[in-house]
């Protein structure tokens, strides 16, 4: 007689699921001064791997098994920087979701840098448009506030690149909201932050 514990699966049969994914783990091309991932990465506490296709398949199957036939799932991608998983990763992910017959919404939290390159950025934007993705863009206010902390590996500010990504997306009708870290710098200038939001025309923060 086997002494191995029986593994039991609980199937939810729920109408709503939200799944948070970090498909590129702690990978990021920025070096934001307040980012806790930098310290964790230096200590070897954060992996630097992209999610494998087999994991994607297992995840989507698990969602399909637990979602009611008339249910809806929201996939939220964060990082690190989730777009560093690559265009092909998301093409495969979207395709697998469609093959599983899932009614899905896709949310992304991104620094926007990958969207500024012509070929890769344009392909991502096309995918976002095709799959009605909702994008959360990390913006800490105007140039002075944003560049105080959100810098690249060389210490250069990223405001211009982020706003370029914002314009590229909004120009084709992609829904974008701003995600702002309320650092000491930002909290010291609330009116400056508000004026930036108002000037940018952003609707959701």
Please, could you describe this protein's structure?
This protein has 205 residues and is of the alpha/beta class. It contains eight helices and five strands. The protein has helices at 36-42, 53-66, 87-99, 118-130, 143-147, 159-170, 184-187, 190-200, and strands at residues 14-21, 67-77, 104-110, 134-138, 175-179. Strands 1-2-3-4-5 form a five-stranded parallel sheet. The longest helix is centred in the N-terminal third of the chain and has 14 residues, at 53-66.
Question: Could you give a quick summary of the protein structure above?
Answer:
The chain is an alpha/beta fold.
Radius of gyration: 19 Å
Question: Strand count, sense and closure of the main sheet?
Answer: 5 strands, parallel
Q: Could you state the order of secondary-structure elements as H and E?
A: EHHEHEHEHHEHH
Hey, roughly how much beta strand do the residues contain? Answer: 15-25%
How many β-strand stretches?
A: 5
CA distance, first residue to last residue: 59 Å
Mean pLDDT: 92
Q: Can you tell me the residue ranges where pLDDT is under 50 for at least 5 consecutive residues?
A: 1-6
- By secondary-structure content and strand pairing, the structural class works out as alpha/beta
Given the C-alpha coordinates, what overall shape results?
globular
Total number of helical segments?
8
The largest sheet has its strands arranged as 1-2-3-4-5
Helix fraction bin:
25-40%
